[in-house]
Design brief:
The chain is of the alpha/beta class and 231 residues long. The chain contains ten helices and five strands, in the order H-E-H-E-H-H-E-H-E-H-E-H-H-H-H. The chain has a five-stranded parallel β-sheet. This is DnaA regulatory inactivator Hda.
């Protein structure tokens, strides 16, 4: 079965920047390392794993690299796993930054495993940097190509940990502030105690509330949020 036609362009989320990423104290070193790599002053090989937010960070690295006149490519494997890897990775060794998102998805896909392995080897001879994200630590990957598993284990590894309760509350207010939404402590606590408490669910709900408040021309008060969450 032939591979589907390649997309004409892999567009980055315009909002996925470092300025829009809530960074608690425990993640500052990690974010600093990623910023240095994106700017060309950091490590050549980086492996990022763990909690949510990785896709945002990889795209933020691409945005930063491009803002400084560097060439970056973002490969979201959740969207591109059915495409021809050789076409997607052609010339990748001449980029400044190559980002693979959700690398665990290539496990069992022989063509992808071989293509990533070959790309890594080509990049050894150039100044190109590689940033990889995965839901799993590299020691937990179940790749069919042992040489690729070995290469990935040589990457500098950083874990993105889950936010604690106070950090999730702070992240909710941070995201609201970026969108120009005034959220009081009381409203933030009301939302937090009545929503799934992972960061993605909180942010998704905030997006819904923002749209509804614009339509209704109302501020985010507890009565409004209560009504909106009941719809």
């Amino acid at each position: 079965m032939p591979s589907p036609q390649l997309p004409l362009a892999l567009k980055l989320d315009t909002e996925a920047t470092f300025d829009n990423f809530y960074t608690p104290e425990g993640h500052r070193l990690l974010v600093n390392q990623l910023q240095q790599q994106a700017a060309g002053t950091g490590e050549k090989w980086v492996y990022l794993y763990g909690a949510g937010g990785k896709s945002h960070l990889l795209q933020a690295c691409c945005h930063l690299a491009e803002s400084e006149g560097r060439y970056a490519r973002y490969i979201p494997l959740g969207e591109l796993i059915d495409f021809d890897p050789e076409s997607l990775l052609e010339g990748a060794e001449y980029l400044d930054l190559l980002c693979f998102d959700d690398l665990q998805l290539i496990a069992g896909h022989d063509e992808w495993e071989r293509a990533v392995f070959n790309c890594y080897n080509r990049m050894l001879a150039t100044s190109a940097c590689m940033l990889v994200s995965s839901s799993l630590a590299h020691s937990q990957l179940t790749l069919g190509l042992p040489d690729l598993q070995s290469r990935l284990q040589s990457l500098s590894s950083y874990r993105l940990s889950d936010l604690n309760e106070s950090e999730r509350m702070a992240a909710l207010k941070f995201k609201a502030n970026i969108r120009g939404i005034l959220v009081s402590d009381a409203v933030a606590e009301y939302i937090y105690t009545r929503c799934q408490r992972d960061a993605k669910s909180l942010f998704d709900l905030l997006n819904v509330l923002d749209r509804l408040s614009l339509v209704e021309q109302r501020k985010l008060t507890i009565p409004f949020v209560k009504q909106a969450m009941a719809w």
